[in-house]
């Protein structure tokens, strides 16, 4: 049974340990210049990239941060576990920071992700480099902290990427899954490190690439929100629909970020498939008045929700 009262501040690993791990993860990507690459390794890396993006976009973001759909406790844990494999810490930590981002988005320095108040480096990654940023105030996500398994996973999130790293090496080194035996180093570099770092950069790009920038040929601003968000159709596939950021900031409770039929939101399409399978349900729609508001700004009306 879920706990009714969440524990207080959950301490993270030391800032020094985080910095060392971050340096190792990024330096390991340089291994692409020294290890062989097979087609199977490449396509596995691509597949794991999209699995990781889906895990934080559908899981950490739309479900844990905004509760935009419902699911069972079992699948909730599976989403949290997959999100941990993306290397973006625990889902409670993710949700507390993201909710603060929406509360102060581009209107206060308390929005640590805002390039409007902070440097691009700080908004993109530098905000993580403090012990305060790594700790989790569980009282800021009481709806999540009442589940002891999520609190536990939030505390020990780093063991799961480590387990995946070891498993990836063993499969590549001792089986012919990637085309031949002895490809452990290639599998680790490409399918673990490169795939994970690119998926992390995709998440960070939402903060620095879609905030505080003027609309351009691939960025547009449909809604007049309090922040400086834009949509970016060019990033729709790489970020699985999460790049319709201005839409999302207009109505963050929706299970979809692509509000219109031509705004390709692959995360939402996958959630719809999961809803047909009855794995998730009660996907929050975009209110008709919001759709009409966005349609008027573009001189057209949508075909529906």
Model description:
The chain has 305 residues and is mainly α. The protein has two domains: 11-197, no CATH class; 209-305, no CATH class. The protein contains 13 helices and six strands. It has a two-stranded antiparallel ribbon with strand order 1-3. Strands 2-6 form a two-stranded antiparallel sheet. The two termini are 36 Å apart. The relative contact order is 0.14. Mean pLDDT is 91; it is low at 299-305.
Characterize this entry briefly.
The chain has 305 residues and is mainly alpha-helical. The chain has helices at residues 15-28, 39-65, 73-84, 91-103, 120-124, 131-134, 142-145, 148-155, 159-174, 184-208, 245-250, 266-276, 288-297, and strands at 9-10, 70-71, 136-137, 219-220, 231-232, 280-281.
List keywords for this structure.
305 residues, mainly alpha, two-stranded antiparallel sheet, 13 helices, 6 strands
What oligomeric state best describes the polypeptide chains here?
A: single chain
Unreliable sequence segments: 299-305
Number of domains: 2
Q: What integer is the average pLDDT? A: 91
- The topology string of helices and strands comes to EHHEHHHHEHHHHEEHHEH
* Principal-axes shape call: globular
Strand proportion, as a percent range, falls in under 5%
Which structural category fits the helices and strands?
Answer: mainly alpha
**What's the count of strands?**
6
Helix tally equals 13
Q: Tell me about the biggest sheet?
A: 2 strands, antiparallel
Measure the end-to-end span.
36 Å
Helix content: 40-55%
Cα Rg: 20 Å
Strand order of the largest sheet: 1-3
